[in-house]
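Hey,
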Amino acid sequence: MRTLARFFAEPYRPLFTLGILEAVAAALVWPLHAAGWIAYPAMLHWTLMVQGFLTSFVFGFLLTAYPQFHHTKKTEPWETLVIVGLVLAVGVSAALGSAALPQAGFLAALVFLLVAIARRLPERRGAPPEEFLFVLAGFLFGIAGSAWGLLVALGIAPEPAPRAPLRLLTHGMMLSIVLGMGGLLVPTFSAMRQPLEIPGIARPGERRPRRLLYGALLSLFLAAAVLESFGALAPAAGLRALVGVPVLILVWKVARPLERSDRVSTVLKLAGWCLAAGLVLALAAPSSLAGDHVLFLGGFGLLIQGIATRVVVAHGPWPRWDESRVLRWDSPALILAAVLVRVVAEIAPAKMPLYGIAGLLWIAAWTLWGRRALLRIARQPLPAPKPAGLGRRLPLSP
């Protein structure tokens, strides 16, 4: 029981574990459908991918890192358990064919997480970084999307464009959180000089110009969400590219040469370029899903593997060089291969076999990375042995 309590006392452990399982489950539906064993699984796939896989890693990171950002009380095991239960309920109810229960569970998880953070605000030290404006906006998009999806599933509200509530979760919530948190983490994790400087706009710690910039960009992001909700995909894609690409270049600094070419830094840089390519491709072909898959599979997938590797190793605590054992080149290469196959499927006459192949490549990527990460998530490293002969006499050889 004590081991289980310690496991849930560090939110990244159970939530990253759940995220790995959801990553596999979300992709497994395509080879199963290609084999003719299940019905067309698009909605189940999106739910498991966005409200399962992505959510588990985002929540796991925030519940672990937020108390450390502001030196507040750590997340309590019961809080982690509630979040894990709600996210798991989303996936299970979606697999059982419910349309309303996954949205109700996801809405409850978002509200619970915000309440958990709000409980710690009075004891925080200092104001949050301005990049948290993107995170806050992301959660507001998420609440709006899941609430709208619930009303649509109950037959209470209309859906003016196909998958409009879902796109609030994917292109609103997740992209906003990724852009904001990535602006803090990617330059820092990559050990760049002046990681929090925005060249020509704001020095590190300079809040006002940063706040003005982010406020203007988020207003465009909101306009994109409104346009997209009513089916105006091309203008929405243009506004998102107008927000995302400058953030990636100026804040993430993806165009800057790496100053430390370790594997995590390189994978995070690849993630940034995939995000930029996905945003531009969505603008060039707004009716195609190719840009979305470059964005989500390539950008989000690589970003999660890079950041989660750093979290698993640093919070273990494992030695820094252990990162190269967790994040080997096989898993990022398989993710990029899955992206390529899925993009080709958009123009191929026979799509379903390629969907299945892309799903298998994604499963292989997360199985390989997950196996290595779970070996470290599930246990603490053994303490280093004490040098012999300190404080006691060594036994004499016979």
